[in-house]
Amino acid sequence: MTQVVIATKNRGKVKDFEAIFGPLGYEVVTMLDVAPDMDIEETGTTFEENAVLKAETLSAALQTMVIADDSGLAIDALHGEPGVYSARYAGDHDDEANIQKALRNLQGETNRQARFVCVIAVAEPNKETYYVRGECEGEITTEKRGTNGFGYDPIFYVPTLNKTMAELTPEQKSTISHRGAAIAKLKEKL
Ligand SMILES: O=P(O)(O)OP(=O)(O)OP(=O)(O)OC[C@H]1O[C@@H](n2cnc3c(O)ncnc32)[C@H](O)[C@@H]1O
Ligand SMILES: [Mg+2]
Question: Any idea which positions bind Mg(2+) (predicted)?
Fold first, then answer.
């Protein structure tokens, strides 16, 4: 089976990638499998910078093609916060604390418009790195709903489906999500 190496340690993202690459006949391999002790510091100020950084660092270490995903939530009323800091907004990868901070900062706010952004970078030895970007529009709820997915999914409402991201199956999520949109663009390039 052909392997795709993803420079991530986020099990939620891995599930999203498997939902899309699995049916295409690819085996998804991640940093948890091939480089569990490696930590790539996300020093960039944009999703693009961080995605390229993660893909190129792991690709150089493994000398193989690597895909990386840098993503996050941009809330209009909070001027795009938490943005590239989505994973470490309130606590390092503490989804619950991050959600509570977002809800607290939006208390009494009527503008709930937000979008998920996903930039996927592809790095390969001796080739030029490239990236694609996907977005998904939604609204921040006032309380959590649903238990699927990860991160901010329980408070991200998708008006067209009348559900939060956490109320969707992984397959449903991939058809409308920022990650699904980015992977669709990626498939055209691979
Ligand atoms: O860097 P890696 O190891 O890939 O994993 P990470 O969780 O640190 O990933 P990011 O640096 O890209 O930060 C993305 C954060 O944005 C949020 N996020 C991204 N995509 C999401 C999605 O589909 N649903 C909910 N939250 C998401 C979530 O809090 C993630 O931790
Ligand atoms: Mg990260």
Answer: 41, 70
